[in-house]
């Protein structure tokens, strides 16, 4: 927990309090349905809990298949373990999707990135072109669902939503985000999360 709330609750709260968000749909493990139903009962924008799959890609595809939306509705996908996403970043992403059809959030790499094979450097990549990509990522419902359908038909396994959109032939716009939009999954992440909370003036503890 962070500040008396689960990481998921803190993440959901950002979208719950955002006027531009019309509904939240979560992919979950079937055995966790009762737990999540109880935990998320106070959040009125949580519209459905949908059984996920073996992999992230299958889980998101299950959610998209369960939705009934207009083609031009904007859908964004976000990791529940990224509680420090801001409403400003969400709004910038929505504007970019509205303008470009598909967009993601990322930050410029501060580090040198090397390709390593068998513990030896085989290539050093040009950092000026490298971005670290986070969630949320999104597109119009038509574009995103079609990209997931196409990936399944072609047996293509991507690493994020953008990779599927790219595979389907879409150009994906990048919105510059914040470095503190971290994914909290390890003990080290929790320590970093506590530092972020302290900086934001949150008196809670992880």
Automatic annotation (TrEMBL):
GO BP, sorted A to Z: cell wall organization; isopentenyl diphosphate biosynthetic process, methylerythritol 4-phosphate pathway; teichoic acid biosynthetic process
GO terms, molecular function: 2-C-methyl-D-erythritol 4-phosphate cytidylyltransferase activity; D-ribitol-5-phosphate cytidylyltransferase activity
Family the UniProt entry places it in: Belongs to the IspD/TarI cytidylyltransferase family. IspD subfamily. Belongs to the IspD/TarI cytidylyltransferase family. TarI subfamily.
Native species: Staphylococcus felis
Entries under InterPro entries matching the protein: IspD (IPR001228), IspD/TarI (IPR034683), IspD/TarI_cytidylyltransf_bact (IPR050088), ISPD_synthase_CS (IPR018294), Nucleotide-diphossugar_trans (IPR029044)
Name by which UniProt lists this protein: 2-C-methyl-D-erythritol 4-phosphate cytidylyltransferase
Gene3D superfamilies found in the cross-reference section: Spore Coat Polysaccharide Biosynthesis Protein SpsA, Chain A
Free-text function comment from the UniProt entry: Catalyzes the transfer of the cytidylyl group of CTP to D-ribitol 5-phosphate.
EC number of the protein: 2.7.7.40, 2.7.7.60
PROSITE patterns in the cross-refs: ISPD (PS01295)
Pathway named in the protein's UniProt entry: Cell wall biogenesis; poly(ribitol phosphate) teichoic acid biosynthesis; Isoprenoid biosynthesis; isopentenyl diphosphate biosynthesis via DXP pathway; isopentenyl diphosphate from 1-deoxy-D-xylulose 5-phosphate: step 2/6
Protein keywords: Cell wall biogenesis/degradation, Isoprene biosynthesis, Nucleotidyltransferase, Teichoic acid biosynthesis, Transferase
Superkingdom per UniProt: Bacteria
Catalytic activity: D-ribitol 5-phosphate + CTP + H(+) = CDP-L-ribitol + diphosphate; 2-C-methyl-D-erythritol 4-phosphate + CTP + H(+) = 4-CDP-2-C-methyl-D-erythritol + diphosphate
EC class of the enzyme, as a word: transferase
